[in-house]
Amino acid sequence: MIDQCGRNIDYLRVSVTDRCNLRCIYCMPKEGLRLVDRCEILSREEIIRICKVMAQLGIKKIKLTGGEPLVRQGVPSLVENLKALPGIEKVTLTTNGSLLAPQMELLARAGLDGLNISLDTLDAACFQKITRRDELSRVKEGIKAALSFPKISVKINCVPLGLEEQDLCEIAAIGKDAPIHVRFIEMMPIGFGREFRGMSEEEVVSLLEKRFGKMTPYTGESLGNGPCHYYNIDGFTGKIGFISAISHKFCRECNRIRLTSQGYLKTCLQYTAGRDLRRILREGGSDEDLKKEILAALKEKPVGHEFLEKEKKDDTENLCMSQIGG
Ligand code: SAM
Ligand code: SF4
């Protein structure tokens, strides 16, 4: 699918739930977030139907997300169904890792291609402060379980908050001996993320170089679907990546669209632009009707975000990241 700016859209992020077992301070409130009724969330058949139509239009890669996708029952069999769709080459999952270990075998058998595990700190007290939960040991078990399936690529995603106690060198060092790429994601001013300063790529690079020596840009073959750029560190097995949506804006190369757990097709993180695909499904619309709406939404995909502009526009997204899927 080519959008109005000539961008080839072949990557779909599918949120399967707005629920989560953690409460990361930059993503969800401590309490009081209105969770949507279960009947408002797309059923597995509805997800598969939309993905089938998306694949016919040119989507090749699907990432399952949430909330925490693994709080929803049946994710492994959903992976299997999505992998079987003609045109879908890769199905991956982004997870906080805490519920991963018991499901890892099933996910591998279902044909999962890759895992992004979100982990902001290896320090138990700092983990509790950031996620408001005591789940670090289960996340570590999840990472260990994932690494026992060498065909599945494993990446760690870390959001630097700018907290003194968040030791980013320790997180980067996960990729020293293990075949794991560690990626630092710039804090985005979405939802509760607006309350944090975060850290720029330059700040993180300078901090890591003080500990590990010069980092050299990686120029080999592509390591994923998206806008991450990577560096090598001498003596590291994995690479260090950066997804810097604010300081290194990459909207011109944007290849993605998002489906919320309620079936809203979002064409940009910052704006509400998109279409309600659930309405079409539940009103008995045909695959052709779905295609028409998807293509109409693409025509209106914003040129890029304007997070650095002070003025908030009427169509600025008000959802928080757990409701969008990151
Ligand atoms: N629960 C899963 C997880 O944590 O990976 C999937 C959903 S979560 C919303 C997806 C990703 O979004 C996580 O890596 C999380 O750290 C990131 N995220 C959440 N809020 C963010 C923000 N304001 N800026 C940048 N990344 C954010
Ligand atoms: Fe949950 Fe992921 Fe948001 Fe943390 S970042 S609260 S794990 S959805």
From TrEMBL:
Residues 4-225 form the Radical SAM core domain. It holds the Pfam family Mob_synth_C. GO terms for molecular function: 4 iron, 4 sulfur cluster binding; cyclic pyranopterin monophosphate synthase activity; GTP 3',8'-cyclase activity; GTP binding; metal ion binding. GO terms for biological process: Mo-molybdopterin cofactor biosynthetic process. InterPro entries: Aldolase_TIM (IPR013785), Elp3/MiaA/NifB-like_rSAM (IPR006638), MoaA (IPR013483), MoaA-like (IPR040064), MoaA_NifB_PqqE_Fe-S-bd_CS (IPR000385), MoaA_twitch (IPR010505), MoCo_biosynth_MoaA/MoaC (IPR050105), rSAM (IPR007197). It catalyses: GTP + AH2 + S-adenosyl-L-methionine = (8S)-3',8-cyclo-7,8-dihydroguanosine 5'-triphosphate + 5'-deoxyadenosine + L-methionine + A + H(+). This is GTP 3',8-cyclase. It comes from Candidatus Blautia faecavium. The lineage of its organism: Bacteria, Bacillati, Bacillota, Clostridia, Lachnospirales.
